[in-house]
Amino acid sequence: MNDTELQRRCHLVFPGHRARTPAELFAAMAAWCEANGVEHDVYGSGPLLQEFEDRIARLLGKEAAVFCISGTMAQVTALRLACQDRGHDLAALHPTSHIFVHERSNYQLLGHFNALEAGERYRPWRVADLAAIPDRLGAVGMELPLREIGGQLSPWDELEAIKAHCRARGAHLHMDGARLWEAAAGYGKPLSEVAAGFDSVYVSLYKGIGGLGGAMLAGSREFVDRAAEWFRRQGGNVIHRSPYVVAAAMGFEERLAAMPACLERTHFLYRELAAHPIIRVNPAAPHTNMLHLHLPVTPERALAIRRALAERHGIWMFNRIAAAALPGTSSFELYVGDNLLNAPDAEVREALALFARALGAQDDKDAYQSA
Questions:
Q1: At what angle do helices 47-60 and 242-249 cross, to 10 degrees?
Q2: Which one of 154, 246, 273, 300 has the largest count of C-beta atoms within 10 Å of its C-beta?
Q3: Signed CA dihedral, 155, 160, 163, 167: sign only
């Protein structure tokens, strides 16, 4: 039995939202299209797409928004245009920026702009991190929240100071808002207030929202129109955006409304984890509905424990796992979505106890028996 089949048999799944099969998802999309009289857009022209773009722009307090096939394309295009506008090709990014960690040096190999690491890897930005840069910056790219360090957010006063600093400096401030929906709940602020002061904002249509993929880039009308032209030049001009928009739009309001509850559930989980010090948690307290859990075992052993829990108890603890900084340790990201939101408290407590006991076992055989 492969991992997907095994996970589907589990009655308690910790990470994310309930996974729907393609048949379930497409059936739901078809029903929503029928109920709402949806027609395909053609190369980005059509009422469904344009109404959803307008909806995103209004939520973020921006003049306009445009669909992009991927966040990777949206981000580097926005920063490239921003640097061109200001005549300086240098963009400041956090060391854990998605552009550095996951985009295979696209900004560099494709000649989009030059990038400079700013700040410290294991904490969010402070305004002093940017003020310490003597270079003339064309753009500053800020991720809210910082996924690679457990969904951490800069304190609100620091965020406001960063906005003011970039404005005074004449640098374009761009938000990597792949998880802005979660960040707004973390700050307890409206989306438009968080996005205010950013010259451009990228948001994801699948991370947290549950769509098939795709992204939106919001900003001034002139900036968005220029970005849209560059999306076409880079091969992003797909004939129909409608499948991506339908998948995001049909559950959009429900997903946004659930973000505060997901954050509260993350606080519950954090409190329960305190009973199991063998599992180390980052950050020290939840900023958003995301945590990183650090384990005193190798990834291979963690995967064996995960399988044992799934086979013997119907518990699925995590998806991807990676080696951590210290030898013999590992860590995984836990995004708290409707799976944990709907799980009984007692079952969550029991699962954490089983997991912690297996992590503390002396060998693989003992770990399997403990699980």
A1: 50
A2: 154
A3: negative
pTM of the model: 0.94
**Structure confidence by residue, pLDDT tens digits, 262-286:** 999 999 999 999 999 999 999 999 9
What is the C-alpha separation between 165 and 133, in angstroms, rounded?
Answer: 12
pLDDT at 324 over 90: yes
Q: In what order do the strands lie in the sheet with 280-282?
A: 280-282, 290-295, 330-335, 322-323
pLDDT-derived band of residue 215, with 50, 70 and 90 as boundaries?
very high
Q: For residue 170, count other CB atoms closer than 10 A to its CB.
A: 11
User: 189 exposed, middle or buried (CB, 10 Å; 0-12, 13-18, 19+)?
Assistant: middle
Give 271's contacts (C-beta < 8 A, 6+ positions apart): none
Q: Look up tokens 């403990």; give the residue.
A: 370
* Beta pairing class for 290-295 and 330-335: antiparallel
CA–CA gap between residue 162 and residue 168 (Å, rounded): 10
Burial 241-272 (b: 16+ CB within 10 A, else e): bbbbbbbbbbbbeebbebbeebbebbeebbee
pLDDT in tens, 229-252: 999 999 999 999 999 999 999 999
Contact 338, 258 (CB under 8 A): yes
Exposed, middle or buried, 28 (CB in 10 Å: 0-12/13-18/19+)?
middle
Q: Is residue 291 a contact partner of residue 282, using CB atoms and an 8 Å limit?
A: yes
pLDDT of 293 strictly over 90: yes
Q: Is the CB of residue 260 less than 8 Å from the CB of residue 126?
A: no
Give the Cβ contact number of residue 179 at 10 Å.
24
Instruction: Please tell me the predicted confidence (pLDDT) of residue 367.
Output: 61
Phi/psi at 332 (5° precision): -145, 155
Of 25, 33, 364, the C-alpha closest to 213 is 25
48-64 burial, b at 16+ Cβ within 10 Å, e below that, comes to: bbbebbeebbebbbbeb
